[in-house]
Amino acid sequence: MAETRETARLAGPEQTVGYTLHGNRYLNITNRCSLRCAFCPKFNDEWTVQEYQLRLDHDPALEEIVAAAGNPEDYQEIVFCGLGEPTLRLYTLLDVATRIRHRVKRIRINTDGLASFVYGRDVTPDMEGLIDALSVSLNAQNADIYNRHCRPKLPGSYGAMLDFVRRAREFIPDVTLTAIDGLSGVDISACEKIAHDLGVKFRHRVLDVVG
Ligand code: SF4
User: Fold this and answer.
1) Where are the domains positioned within the chain?
2) What is the whole-number distance in angstroms between the Cα of residue 193 and the centre of ligand 1?
3) Is the CB of 35 under 6 A from ligand 1?
4) Is residue 177 within 6 Å of ligand 1 at its C-beta?
5) CA of 113 to the centre of ligand 1 (A)
6) What digits encode the pLDDT tens for the residues 22-57?
7) Helix 188-198 and helix 157-171: axis angle, to 10°?
8) DSSP letters along 59-107, please?
9) CATH number 3.20.20.70 is the correct assignment for the domain at 18-206
10) How many helices (H) and strands (E) does the chain have?
11) Considering only CA atoms, which residue is closest to atom 1 of ligand 1?
12) Which atom belonging to ligand 1 lies closest to the Cα atom of 31?
């Protein structure tokens, strides 16, 4: 379920809300997802990325996320990314971005690109001026292969994700599609062509390498 402003609760102190990798600060703001990817570590009971334990027992509250960003000016990027889909907490995410915007070089969201589909409206204008970059999981060159690997909860997710990317180009300066090399049936060249045709960047990831 997407977020309402009432849903955020305090997370316990043992949870990893903020973690640092590659000079970036990552914010793990929910474990909920609109996809159920067969390759996802959490569905294989693996919640650790590098040395960080990313399982949450609550969605962390706004103040805790801001605190977890640490000194945001110290990092190359603040990245909303964890073992969950950050845009399921869109309003909290945007509130955090608003709070830290003046202190950061760059804010990125790693996303499945389904936020507008889940919220039932085009949410990409909400990100304008707050979010510098989106990394969107394309994951496959067509809906059949996408559905096989990503097992979306909502039918029509693949097309909705592409529509999100088309809209996002107008409001987010840097949009990148990603796909994972090594998943059966996934044609990386065809995925790259989709990104090229949409006029956005492309990056391929390697299976079982996260973070
Ligand atoms: S979108 Fe990411 S976190 Fe969610 S199920 Fe897929 S791989 Fe896992």
Assistant:
1) 18-206
2) 23
3) yes
4) no
5) 12
6) 999 999 999 999 999 999 988 888 898 888 889 999
7) 40
8) PPPHHHHHHHT-SGGGSS-EEE-BSB-GGGGHHHHHHHHHHHGGG-S-E
9) yes
10) 6, 9
11) 35
12) 3
